[in-house]
Amino acid sequence: MRIGDICSNNPPSVATIGFFDGVHRGHRFLVDQVRHEAAAHGLESAVVTFPVHPRQVLQSDYRPKLLTTPQEKLALLEQTGVGTCILLDFTLHLASLSAREFMEVLKHRYHIRSLVIGYDHRFGHNRSEGFDDYVRYGRELGIDIRPAEAFRLPDAPDGAPVSSSLIRRLLLAGDVAQAATCLGYPYFLNGTVVSGRRIGHQLGYPTANLQPDHPDKIVPANGVYAVRVETEGRTYGGMLNIGRRPTLDNGDDRSIEVHIFDFDRNIYQEPLRLSFIRRIREERRFASVDELAEQLHRDAATIRALL
């Protein structure tokens, strides 16, 4: 996959536009339509996206809840097989362009011949124009405009299409299993192992405390999770707790602590990736530390059986 923001030597392409947070199954379905259209006409396939959320430019105090960091997004886009990723810096000038002016940029600077528009996507100043406007401008500019089909899960209870917003809601509710179904892969969190209070050692379940690499990446709801843990080039099963450890009076400090099964090495300050499989239970307060230890023993058995 070619990556760039200035592509004067780009071959003519079929493209789509979006933020692509999570690069979920709906995004992949859209990119597949772009690739099919490009192959049918002997053109390059491309996605146009942004390194930061456009709303951050328009609202300086806006903090997005991200499914993927910019680097993770690019890695996932590469897996789709798309030929080119055009990274646009979303500036106030770009935000001021009308839809037609933006389409002129796409045609003359990036050599886009055909644009596949996502079912819910709008662009241009204030996002005030819609698909019929894009078709009209496309005729004037020589850009073929095509609508994209939405991707829906066959067993979705309400028939709603898969979207980044839906996945964020699932993660914040702790439903990491359904989030994985929508994403097409288990949701993951990258970070660095930092020092903790070593309470887990006293309970018989030593833990690695994770500091996420990106402050805006979503941390799922508090609770106990079955996870896969990648460290030192290998993958292990793990029991993860996210929360404030109410039994231990941890106050308002939220921690991310994972007990890695069958692992006893020191990985302090090492990188680590957590892939979320399922939430086992909510976080709750126990009457004593002994009762907490007994519950952890049951949780570990449940998670080992699941993994």
TrEMBL record:
The keyword ATP-binding applies. GO terms for molecular function: ATP binding; FMN adenylyltransferase activity; riboflavin kinase activity. It catalyses: FMN + ATP + H(+) = FAD + diphosphate; riboflavin + ATP = FMN + ADP + H(+). Residues 182-307 form the Riboflavin kinase domain. Coiled coil: none annotated. Signal peptide: none annotated. GO terms for biological process: FAD biosynthetic process; FMN biosynthetic process; riboflavin biosynthetic process. Its EC number is 2.7.1.26, 2.7.7.2. SMART domains: Flavokinase. Keywords: ATP-binding, FAD, Flavoprotein, FMN, Kinase, Multifunctional enzyme, Nucleotide-binding, Nucleotidyltransferase, Transferase. Pathway: Cofactor biosynthesis; FMN biosynthesis; FMN from riboflavin (ATP route): step 1/1; Cofactor biosynthesis; FAD biosynthesis; FAD from FMN: step 1/1. The keyword Nucleotide-binding applies. PANTHER family: RIBOFLAVIN KINASE, RIBOFLAVIN KINASE/FMN ADENYLYLTRANSFERASE. Catalyzes the phosphorylation of riboflavin to FMN followed by the adenylation of FMN to FAD. Belongs to the ribF family. This is Riboflavin biosynthesis protein. It comes from Candidatus Bacteroides merdigallinarum. The gene is ribF.
